[in-house]
Amino acid sequence: MMTVKQTLLGLLLAVFISGCSFRFVYNHLDWWTHWYLDDYVTLNAQQQQDFDEQFEQLHLWHRKTQLPLYAEQLKNLKVAIKTELDGEQVLENLTQFIHHWQNFLIVTAPKLQPLAYSLSAQQKQQLLQAIKNSHQENLDDYEALNDAEWLEERADEQIVQLKGWFGKLTRAQKAQVRQMSSGFQRAFMSRMQYREVWTEQFAALLNGNFPEQQFNVEFYRLFVNGRSLRGETLNAITTNNSQVFAEIFVYMVTTATDKQRKRINKKLDKVIGDLVNLSNDD
């Protein structure tokens, strides 16, 4: 379940960062979710029907209540970029995104609890094995890069993301962003340790013979408050990396050319417009 959460969040962030059509993806989230869920567990007909009904309700709630909040936040960010954006404002925006995500988890958990409780022994083992396989794939990818190679790749990714918002970076901007990106710290092993702790507790919950009420309490704890299992090292790295990103973003805003400022304003207007239109769709 933690992997499902992270993938949905990653999908939404990827849409904002890339040139993909957010409206297209959002309006077809049911398809994306079914495609992804099938990789982890095979539901029976009744479970699939229940899931579809709950997903439709959740999607409508998110469309009508959350998308307007995202649009309002981006409108405020656009104003800040036009005036005088500082690192604290960037960090505040990152915190707001986390709060939005937490609100989503709070509403989602009660809708997934019955499904999780209804899984058969075979489905539970299928789900846990899929999570284990996903962890191993991540480890294999991690071992393919040493720290220096990771930093270089991280800098390349940062430049690509910024290009998506500001357009082509100048040579000086690329050099400075690459230098500033050296401040990023690799969180992979700390994150994997957190995932292992989370997965162990999730497996104990699935394999335990808990009354439904107790199961729901533990499921909510893991699904909504799972971040409490993160270690101090991971929290410190996350804080550092957020600070580095904030400094890079402020640098780009303060050094942006007129063309780049027009580009990011146009990009923000497009995303805001999509959010508003989506929230008004039935």
- The string of secondary-structure elements, in order, is HHHHHHHHHHHH
Beta-strand fraction estimate: under 5%
Largest sheet features: none
Return the average pLDDT rounded to an integer: 89
Low-confidence stretches: 1-9, 14-19
Helix content: over 70%
Structural class: mainly alpha
Total domain units: 1
Write a brief caption for the model.
The protein is an all-alpha fold and 282 residues long. It is 83% helix and 0% strand.
Descriptive account of the structure:
- The protein has 12 helices and no strands.
- It is globular, with a radius of gyration of 20 Å.
- The protein has 282 residues and is an all-alpha fold.
- It has helices at residues 2-17, 22-27, 29-37, 45-82, 87-118, 121-143, 147-166, 171-181, 188-207, 212-224, 232-255, 258-280.
- Helix 4 (45-82) runs antiparallel to helix 12 and helix 9 packs antiparallel against helix 10.
- It has one domain (2-280).
- 13% of the residues are buried.
Q: What attributes does this structure have?
A:
single chain, 282 residues, 12 helices, 0% strand, mainly alpha
Task: Please outline the helices and strands.
Layout: H1 2-17, H2 22-27, H3 29-37, H4 45-82, H5 87-118, H6 121-143, H7 147-166, H8 171-181, H9 188-207, H10 212-224, H11 232-255, H12 258-280
Helix pairs in contact: 4-5, 4-12, 5-10, 5-11, 6-9, 7-8, 8-11, 9-10
